[in-house]
Structure formats: C-alpha cells, structure tokens
C-alpha cells in the first residue's frame, strides 16, 4: 500500500537521471508544475535536448554523481542501468530524498501515478506498481469527468463573478447533447431551462441545483426574452455557474445571439456550446437526409411562424433544394400555398416530424397540395419540424399518392 500525497514542486529542484523516452515523458508534468528540472545523462532523446535548448531544463551531459542530489527534493531514476539505479535509490534514501526508481516499483520509495487533469481537478491513480492497470482506471475516471457522468461541480465558498454557458441540448434525447455541454451541466449551480431541451438530464441534477423554467409554447411566452436575459446576468452576478439549457442549437432560431450579447454587455463571461440542431437531426430521426447525392445538394432553414413569402425570395424554388421549416405548424396552410405560388410544384413531397427523437415521435407525409389537410386530420401539434423537397421520398415513412 502507498500513502497518496500531492507534491507542490514549483521552484524546487527535481533531479532526473536518464535521457531516454521514459525520462522524457516525466518532464512535461514537472515543468507544468514549475519544477526546476536537472537532467543527468550522457545521451538524451530529442524531447530532452529540445527542452534543454529552449532553456526549460538543465541538461548535464555526463554520468550521475552523488553530488547531483544536493538540494534535490525529488529524484526520478531512469538511467537504464540496474547498478546505477540501486546506487541512486540508496543514496537518496540516506539523504531522506524521495526517489522514484524506474523499472523496480517494489524497491521504489515513491511511484508516479497515472494522471489526468480536467479543469482544476487532478486525478491520480496508483495500483501497486501496475502502470497499465493504473492508466486504464485513470482513463475511465477521466472519461466520466469529461462527459459529466461524474460531476465536476465546485461548491462556492465566496462571492464573485459567475459565468453563463449557452448550451445547445440537442433535440430532446439526452444522448445527443455534446460532451462539453453535458460536462458544463454537471458543474452548474443554476440551470435556466427550455421545454425542448433534454429534460431527463435536469431530473438527474443534484437537489441543490436551482432550476429556473423559462420554456415557451406557441403563442404563449410566460417568461419573455428580456426577462430570460435578466435572469442569466442576475444569477451570474451572484457568483453562480449558470447553464442556459436550450433545445437544438443556441444559434439556430434559438435567440442565443441575443442572450450572448446581453451577457457581454453586462460584463458577464459567456460561453456558447453548439448543439445538434433539430433542423437536421429531427429529419434524420425520420430517415430523411437533408441532402442526398442526385436528389438534393443544398438546404435552407427558415422560421415557419412568420409570413414565408418574406423569406423565400433567395431560396432556390426547385424541389431538389431542401427547405426546412421550424415552428411552422400554425401557418402550414398559408406557407404551403406561398411555396406553390413561389414556383414549387404542388406535388413536392413534404414531411412533418412531431416530437423528434422522443418516444412519441410521429411522422406525417404528403405533398404541398395535401399536407395542410393531412395535418388537420391527424391533429398535428408543435414541436414539429417540416421538411419540403424530394429528399422526403427517401424516408421509410413516405407514402406516395
């Protein structure tokens, strides 16, 4: 068994004996910690010679001498000679200097653990001298921290400026949030949540995380955008790590740009984490690629809750250019008529995907001429993504007339 201990080596002498690859691998962490590193070796690999040429280490090109231990706090012995290794370990022991004896963990007074650093957290794993096992465990813990499965949340002890992260949560399914977004959510003190974000991630938060619901429904915005902006800044000024958890991507018809500008105008540090936009991912959930060789080589995304005639002037009118309407259910009939008037054929395939990526996902297909009647017949509701173009016919849900 070993006693786990963290060493602060900044400004302290560390002696590395040996110039091979193992010795070189030890250098970077020592230098990152600010150690004053002396390397003793008659020959050295390129990483060490480069560090010496840059003045980052003191490389003395010769064999080890007992006097080299003078003033050292820690010795890493990687000479490649069993006799020299034994001598260094014995002399370091006599001088009460901790010595890592490379290649002989059983006789080593200290071990170098497998280390991972994530933000301000350092993970170090020792496994009784089994480096491969230590590395595997280290990688597993680091991956869990990176993904947010293990929280990196820091409990505040003093007031100070907080931060805001605008996180795109993707289209409802918790598995589609990015690793960065999941990690920031696990670190949050306050979550300002949309109704279309990954709700299951919210229920898994710690009980002391404050969740502020600001979700909007079509035609009903109980918390106006100006108030959402104010909440983000207010909570950050209280010193909280704030995550604005949004559905899809913050910048795709999500008003993320307004929230970012408001935070910056009030001096609040803000980070934007892109998300899997519903404009592409929800059609994919219905088996519809927004582009496909020989079928469609481009696509456009527009809002469907405004008069579509004001938006389609620069969009190619052919059905080989995919058109994706977000928030377009309420004006579907007028939008379909406008697209036909604007040059698209009445027979152009159309799909409506409700509740994309949820268990309740439902797909309705038709044409520009028939889709509004079909939507009324099936009582189609938001949230839904509407896809217009020949790519709809590639979906297994397509039912040609």
TrEMBL record:
Tetrapyrrole methylase domain: residues covered: 163-371
Presence of the UniProt keyword Nucleus in the record: no
Pfam families: NAD_binding_7 (PF13241), TP_methylase (PF00590)
Superkingdom, taxonomy of origin: Bacteria
Keywords, in A-Z order: Cobalamin biosynthesis, Lyase, Methyltransferase, Multifunctional enzyme, NAD, Oxidoreductase, Porphyrin biosynthesis, S-adenosyl-L-methionine, Transferase
Pathway: Porphyrin-containing compound metabolism; siroheme biosynthesis; sirohydrochlorin from precorrin-2: step 1/1
Catalytic activity: precorrin-2 + NAD(+) = sirohydrochlorin + NADH + 2 H(+)
Residue stretches spanning the membrane: none
Keyword Transferase in record: yes
Protein name per Swiss-Prot or TrEMBL: Uroporphyrinogen-III C-methyltransferase
Species whose genome carries this gene: Arthrobacter parietis
């Amino acid at each position: 068994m070993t006693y786990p201990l963290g060493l602060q080596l900044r400004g302290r002498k560390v002696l590395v004996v040996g110039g091979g690859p193992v010795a070189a691998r030890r250098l970077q962490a020592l230098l990152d910690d600010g150690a004053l590193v002396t390397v003793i070796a008659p020959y050295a690999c390129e990483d060490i010679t480069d560090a010496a040429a840059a003045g980052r280490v003191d490389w003395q090109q010769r064999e080890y001498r007992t006097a080299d231990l003078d003033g050292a706090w820690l010795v890493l012995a990687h000479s490649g000679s069993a006799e020299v290794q034994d001598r260094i370990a014995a002399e370091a022991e006599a001088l009460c200097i901790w010595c890592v004896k490379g290649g002989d963990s059983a006789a080593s007074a200290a071990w170098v653990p497998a280390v991972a650093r994530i933000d301000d957290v350092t993970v170090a794993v020792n496994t009784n001298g089994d480096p491969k096992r230590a590395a595997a465990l280290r990688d597993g813990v680091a991956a869990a921290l990176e993904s947010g499965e293990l929280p990196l949340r820091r409990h505040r002890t003093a007031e100070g400026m907080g931060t805001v992260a605008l996180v795109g949560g993707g289209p409802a399914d918790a598995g589609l949030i990015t690793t960065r977004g999941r990690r920031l959510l696990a670190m949050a003190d306050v979550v300002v949540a949309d109704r279309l974000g990954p709700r299951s991630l919210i229920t898994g938060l710690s009980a002391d995380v404050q969740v502020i619901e600001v979700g909007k429904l079509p035609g009903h915005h109980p918390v106006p955008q100006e108030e959402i902006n104010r909440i983000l800044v207010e909570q950050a000024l209280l010193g909280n790590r704030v995550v604005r958890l949004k559905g899809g991507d913050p910048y795709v018809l999500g008003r993320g740009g307004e929230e970012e500008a408001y935070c910056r105008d009030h001096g609040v540090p803000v980070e934007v984490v892109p998300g899997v936009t519903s404009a592409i991912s929800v059609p994919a959930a219905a088996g519809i690629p927004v582009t496909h060789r020989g079928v469609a080589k481009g696509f456009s995304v527009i809002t469907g809750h405004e008069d579509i005639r004001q938006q389609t002037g620069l969009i190619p009118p052919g059905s080989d250019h995919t058109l994706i309407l977000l928030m377009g259910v309420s004006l579907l009939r007028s939008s379909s008529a406008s697209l036909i008037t604007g040059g698209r054929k009445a027979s152009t395939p159309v799909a409506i995907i409700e509740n994309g990526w949820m268990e309740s996902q439902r797909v309705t297909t038709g044409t520009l001429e028939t889709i509004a009647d079909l939507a009324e017949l099936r009582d189609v509701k938001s949230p839904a993504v509407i896809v217009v173009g020949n790519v709809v016919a590639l979906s297994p849900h397509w039912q040609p007339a």
